[in-house]
Amino acid sequence: MSCTVLFRPLAVLELLEAVMWYEARRHGLGLELKEEVDTALERAAESPQRFPRVHGEVRPALLRPSDD
């Protein structure tokens, strides 16, 4: 079962700020962060049942996924 992963506007802004912050520390580090986030989002979209629901259909992907 695949699903759509949604980012709230504030979360998008926070991610962009984090990417820029890491990139300012070391060239390429911001891109590494973005790639890791993209990979995590792909896993969450492919297997949403691994992440527990916290409200309705909301499943925060930052929580450690369950093994079931």
How many strands appear in the DSSP assignment? 0
H/E topology pattern: HH
Rg (CA only): 14 Å
Query: Total number of helical segments?
Result: 2
Q: Output mean pLDDT.
A: 83
Report on the architecture of this protein:
With 68 residues, this protein is mainly alpha-helical. The model has no long low-confidence stretch (mean pLDDT 83). It has helices at 9-25, 29-46. It is elongated. The protein has a domain at 9-50. It contains two helices and no strands.
Summarize it:
The chain has 68 residues and is mainly alpha-helical. It is built from two helices and no strands.
Keywords:
68 residues; mainly alpha
Question: Topology of this structure?
Answer:
Layout: H1 9-25, H2 29-46
Helix pairs in contact: 1-2
